[in-house]
Write a structure and sequence with these properties.
Elements lengths: L4 E5 L3 H12 L4 E5 L5 H16 L5 E4 L10 E4 L15 H18 L4 E4 L4 H12 L6 E3 L2 H16 L6 E2 L2 E2 L7 E2 L5 E2 L2 E2 H6 L5 H12 L1 H9 L6 H15 L4 E10 L5 E12 L2 E5 L6 H24 L5
Parallel strand pairs: 1-2, 1-4, 2-3, 4-5, 5-6
Antiparallel strand pairs: 7-10, 8-9, 10-11, 12-13, 13-14
Bound molecules: 3-acetylpyridine adenine dinucleotide.
3-acetylpyridine adenine dinucleotide (A3D) binds next to α1 and α3.
């Protein structure tokens, strides 16, 4: 079997972590790309020099030219700027939109068959911009946010209940922002839905609400601690789980920022929904039967994505 090629556009904190993890997992040849000269080359060499110690044989290259990503099977996009304390994800829109236009042109030319995972914030608007700028099919361009948001929720729940993270499942819908919708009804401890655990008095509704809010604020909590940037370890593993599902045709059902074409009554926008990722890309979108309260929270969240996409269209009218 030919080796897979994984291209990482943006070789900053998340890009570097993705390169290291991809090499350790021997997912294929790794291409680190960045506009800053020396950074992708330096990170590629540093990670390659760790391979004799760890004993993995992954090839890594660093580049400042898009030609280096030619023939990539998977492209993970983290190019742009992260937020600093006091900034919202939406504050990044203007600068990262320009970056998505450049990356989109590179993808169109050199990696039109790739499965593309966008991580750059504000996520749901940036994945829309990236798909529009690249012209790649909707089912091959997806955003990573839900896996991370659900992982944060799962971690907080495992701490609260003092159980293994392995036995905690969680589902988070909507846009990757303050209005995201952690769905308690579809989140479980050992298969027991959270509302049942409230009834069983394992947790109070008030405490559960606090954990839901901490999940919504999960990104800001890390930004507040780091002060110089945003989270990168958990975002990197989350994006890689989506890449692996595609490369290995695992058909994992993961919350993804997927293009909605009528699902949930929404057309022409990306938003976080459960989806199956196979070797085809986004294979299936799962349409849940939401309660009216869940539906109104989801609508509110999607409305904020819509506002951001409209802002993108105003700034870059030629984009779409
Ligand atoms: P950072 O370490 O700054 O890396 C970004 C890299 O992008 C830098 O190396 C830049 O040089 C590079 N870059 C800038 N402009 C371009 C360009 N035009 N072409 C190619 N590369 C460019 O940031 P990071 O890795 O911490 O975060 C990257 C992005 O991910 C930010 O927008 C974050 O807000 C976002 N992020 C998203 C999540 C989600 O869950 C969606 C989580 C955490 C971070």
């Amino acid at each position: 079997m030919p080796r897979s090629r994984i291209a990482l556009i943006g070789s900053g904190q998340i890009g570097g972590t993705l390169a290291h993890l991809s090499a350790i997992k021997e997912l294929g040849e790794v291409v680190l790309f960045d506009v800053v000269e020396g950074v992708p080359q330096g990170k590629a060499l540093d990670i390659a020099e760790s391979s004799p110690v760890e004993g993995y044989g992954s090839k890594l290259v660093g580049a400042n030219e898009y030609a280096a990503i030619e023939g990539a099977d998977v492209v993970i996009v983290t190019a742009g700027v992260p937020r600093k304390p006091g900034m919202s994800r939406d504050d990044l829109l203007e600068i990262n939109l320009k970056v998505m236009e450049q990356v989109g042109a590179g993808l169109r030319k050199y990696a039109p068959d790739a499965f593309v995972i966008c991580v750059t914030n504000p996520l749901d608007a940036m994945v829309w911009a990236l798909q529009t700028a690249s012209g790649l099919p909707h089912h091959k361009v997806v955003g990573m946010a839900g896996v991370l948001d659900a992982a944060r929720f799962r971690y907080f729940l495992s701490e609260e209940f003092d159980v293994s993270v392995k036995d905690v499942t969680a589902l988070v819908l909507g846009g990757h922002g303050d209005t995201m919708v952690p769905l308690t009804r579809y989140s479980t401890i050992g298969g027991i839905p959270l509302p049942d655990l409230v009834k069983m008095r394992w947790i109070t509704q008030k405490r559960l609400d606090e954990i839901v809010q901490r999940t919504r604020d999960g990104g800001a909590e890390i930004v507040g601690l780091l002060k110089t940037g945003s989270a990168f370890y958990a975002p990197a593993v989350s994006a890689l789980s989506m890449a692996e599902s595609y490369l290995k045709d695992q058909k994992r059902m993961l919350p993804c920022a997927a293009y909605l074409n009528g699902e949930y009554g929404i057309k022409g926008l990306y938003a976080g929904v459960p989806a199956v990722i196979s070797a085809k890309g986004i294979d299936r979108i799962v349409e849940l039967d939401l309660t009216s309260a869940e539906k109104s929270e989801f609508t509110k969240s999607v409305d904020s994505v819509k506002t951001l996409v409209e802002a993108c269209q105003k700034i870059a009218p030629n984009l779409g």
